[in-house]
Amino acid sequence: MQEITVSTSNLTYSVKIGRLDKIIHKGKVLVVSNPKIAGMYLQDLLDCIQADEVFVSIVPDGESHKNFESIDKILEVAFESRLDRKSLMIALGGGVISDMVGFASGIYQRGVDFITIPTTLLAQVDASVGGKTGINNRFGKNLVGIFHQPKAVYVNPLYLQTLPKREFSAGVAEIIKMAVCFDKDFFNWLKDNDLNDRDCLEIAIARSIQIKANVVSLDETEQGIRGALNYGHTFAHVIENETNYHTFLHGEAVAIGMRMANDLALKLGLMSVENIKSIDFLLNRYDLNHNYHIKDVESFYDKFFLDKKTQNDKIKFIFPKGIGDVAITDEVPKDKLFETLKKWGK
Amino acid sequence: MQEITVSTSNLTYSVKIGRLDKIIHKGKVLVVSNPKIAGMYLQDLLDCIQADEVFVSIVPDGESHKNFESIDKILEVAFESRLDRKSLMIALGGGVISDMVGFASGIYQRGVDFITIPTTLLAQVDASVGGKTGINNRFGKNLVGIFHQPKAVYVNPLYLQTLPKREFSAGVAEIIKMAVCFDKDFFNWLKDNDLNDRDCLEIAIARSIQIKANVVSLDETEQGIRGALNYGHTFAHVIENETNYHTFLHGEAVAIGMRMANDLALKLGLMSVENIKSIDFLLNRYDLNHNYHIKDVESFYDKFFLDKKTQNDKIKFIFPKGIGDVAITDEVPKDKLFETLKKWGK
């Protein structure tokens, strides 16, 4: 079992990559999952848990259910099961589940521990590490939440064998994001290797988690460099909001957002056409070539202001500087931005 | 202006006692208050604020409104006003308002700063210092929330001139609590002085805040000594829950809870009859002699298990050891506890 360490202000924890072993906890445990994942993997997990008592809460799947109603459902079960401050919550599922369990455990009795067991590629390489938790509301994505670091993360690549192809690709989008922003060697490696190969995939998962762990350890609460992980996300969050979180998986929206960011970076002289082509090449290989039609450029623009990254009414963008480096700026001329938006508005 | 410093893991902040001066903030400010307090003091506060933009949210008053609905109302205004991560929330009101604004600001975009301006005696001496935030639900009091320290606390004793007599007494209950648990000299001083005298009251406020600040600095997240501040509260939370937060003010319920705790402490040999009499003498002087009738001892007992202090199904009690010291224990024989409960059940 491979272990990667994440260091944060209040605690240090491990991301363990490999087959799930025993989870031992002195106290009560509440496992939260969604119907589909529970059907496939809940029993296996329950067999691994040694605790005083184990309870289960099943909440609906999907970004459209990442709301306070689901949090309330999790809390209800926690209260009815009389979980106390020494209890543990476990998230078994994708990013939606880990974001919600991180939040619910963080506000239950002012905070109990939680562990995440990500079952999607996206959650394994990105969402489950770093302590960002939260829910969506009508104003946008992840707008309500807290920083709450997990006690441990268990990444089991075996779960990916049953992952639908679209979800696999959505996860690859975040892997490509990490490489573009932080690691040129990794990017070149991705060009030469196929993530459909299981060994390659495990290498890419470990490398992505290592990048994420480094970034989070440097900047837990996103005062600076951690913001770079939002490459593509400034656009993606608006796209997801406009489509009510129904049309695209998060990683698919991020892929569209990366292309938009690249287009704008080109206009600003930060990227070359060659670099953009090499990113497009990788995205296309994993079918991350979704179209998006911006119906109303003005209203799309307005929605940037609901993003957490927007401060003092300035929109924050993350642009690759070539491959392996990144620029964060809130000084993008509105006319340049509108040129890019209009390109998707035709 | 007198200043008391509170040191916590992530930040150090001041409690400023005296007339409110200027509050300068680069960014947006959202002031949250209740209808009654806003009517009396909002304009004065707005005159003191220098900020880019100032917004106001008014939420209903009282413990029965300290729920997620009110949090949602505050967040709505925050989103509609496009508050960002550099924005500031200000709580103008009693403990209900400061608990809710602390929670709302802590989960808005994963956390923005907040300042509390407590307008009740109880909030000035206790609730506004220490970073405990949260809301009630059908399972009990303050069961959902986070630790979120304010950026500053402004205590203006002038607000107390319009405080209803009952609310004044409720605040005195927490002052007496501090003295009994932590400070024998202060307790004796309380016996010799009348808090209806304005100068005496200001001395008692400062002394209580100093005690609270010391305890919080020692044990921010209540792993040990901070638990002592819950003297009387184990019982009080059940009483408040049984009466739907309508019958008693929090401090009134705490006074009943202190008497119950004292009765049990006497049975356990931790307190003398003389000490109990001297506490009763102080409570009675401020009309803190409310009766409570426990209708069903078993169901009262059951409700202890919803308290955050209950762990591994053991109820945690705080008992004075004489005056000025305290014992925290979760090893109270059930029969002794039932004897005390039955005394209030007659």
UniProtKB/TrEMBL annotation, chains A, B:
<feature type="binding site">
    <location>
        <position position="174"/>
    </location>
    <ligand>
        <name>Zn(2+)</name>
    </ligand>
</feature>
<keyword id="KW-0520">NAD</keyword>
<dbReference type="GO" id="GO:0005737">
    <property type="term" value="C:cytoplasm"/>
</dbReference>
<dbReference type="InterPro" id="IPR050071">
    <property type="entry name" value="Dehydroquinate_synthase"/>
</dbReference>
<dbReference type="InterPro" id="IPR030963">
    <property type="entry name" value="DHQ_synth_fam"/>
</dbReference>
<feature type="binding site">
    <location>
        <position position="250"/>
    </location>
    <ligand>
        <name>Zn(2+)</name>
    </ligand>
</feature>
<keyword id="KW-0170">Cobalt</keyword>
<keyword id="KW-0963">Cytoplasm</keyword>
<keyword id="KW-0028">Amino-acid biosynthesis</keyword>
<dbReference type="GO" id="GO:0003856">
    <property type="term" value="F:3-dehydroquinate synthase activity"/>
</dbReference>
<feature type="domain" description="3-dehydroquinate synthase C-terminal">
    <location>
        <begin position="171"/>
        <end position="310"/>
    </location>
</feature>
<keyword id="KW-0057">Aromatic amino acid biosynthesis</keyword>
<dbReference type="InterPro" id="IPR056179">
    <property type="entry name" value="DHQS_C"/>
</dbReference>
<feature type="binding site">
    <location>
        <begin position="119"/>
        <end position="120"/>
    </location>
    <ligand>
        <name>NAD(+)</name>
    </ligand>
</feature>
<dbReference type="Pfam" id="PF24621">
    <property type="entry name" value="DHQS_C"/>
</dbReference>
<dbReference type="GO" id="GO:0046872">
    <property type="term" value="F:metal ion binding"/>
</dbReference>
<dbReference type="InterPro" id="IPR016037">
    <property type="entry name" value="DHQ_synth_AroB"/>
</dbReference>
<dbReference type="GO" id="GO:0008652">
    <property type="term" value="P:amino acid biosynthetic process"/>
</dbReference>
<keyword id="KW-0862">Zinc</keyword>
<feature type="binding site">
    <location>
        <position position="141"/>
    </location>
    <ligand>
        <name>NAD(+)</name>
    </ligand>
</feature>
<dbReference type="Pfam" id="PF01761">
    <property type="entry name" value="DHQ_synthase"/>
</dbReference>
<dbReference type="InterPro" id="IPR030960">
    <property type="entry name" value="DHQS/DOIS_N"/>
</dbReference>
<dbReference type="GO" id="GO:0000166">
    <property type="term" value="F:nucleotide binding"/>
</dbReference>
<comment type="similarity">
    <text>Belongs to the sugar phosphate cyclases superfamily. Dehydroquinate synthase family.</text>
</comment>
<feature type="binding site">
    <location>
        <begin position="61"/>
        <end position="66"/>
    </location>
    <ligand>
        <name>NAD(+)</name>
    </ligand>
</feature>
<protein>
    <recommendedName>
        <fullName>3-dehydroquinate synthase</fullName>
        <ecNumber>4.2.3.4</ecNumber>
    </recommendedName>
</protein>
<feature type="binding site">
    <location>
        <position position="132"/>
    </location>
    <ligand>
        <name>NAD(+)</name>
    </ligand>
</feature>
<feature type="binding site">
    <location>
        <begin position="95"/>
        <end position="99"/>
    </location>
    <ligand>
        <name>NAD(+)</name>
    </ligand>
</feature>
<dbReference type="GO" id="GO:0009073">
    <property type="term" value="P:aromatic amino acid family biosynthetic process"/>
</dbReference>
<keyword id="KW-0456">Lyase</keyword>
<comment type="function">
    <text>Catalyzes the conversion of 3-deoxy-D-arabino-heptulosonate 7-phosphate (DAHP) to dehydroquinate (DHQ).</text>
</comment>
<keyword id="KW-0479">Metal-binding</keyword>
<keyword id="KW-0547">Nucleotide-binding</keyword>
<feature type="domain" description="3-dehydroquinate synthase N-terminal">
    <location>
        <begin position="58"/>
        <end position="169"/>
    </location>
</feature>
<feature type="binding site">
    <location>
        <position position="233"/>
    </location>
    <ligand>
        <name>Zn(2+)</name>
    </ligand>
</feature>
<dbReference type="GO" id="GO:0009423">
    <property type="term" value="P:chorismate biosynthetic process"/>
</dbReference>
<comment type="pathway">
    <text>Metabolic intermediate biosynthesis; chorismate biosynthesis; chorismate from D-erythrose 4-phosphate and phosphoenolpyruvate: step 2/7.</text>
</comment>
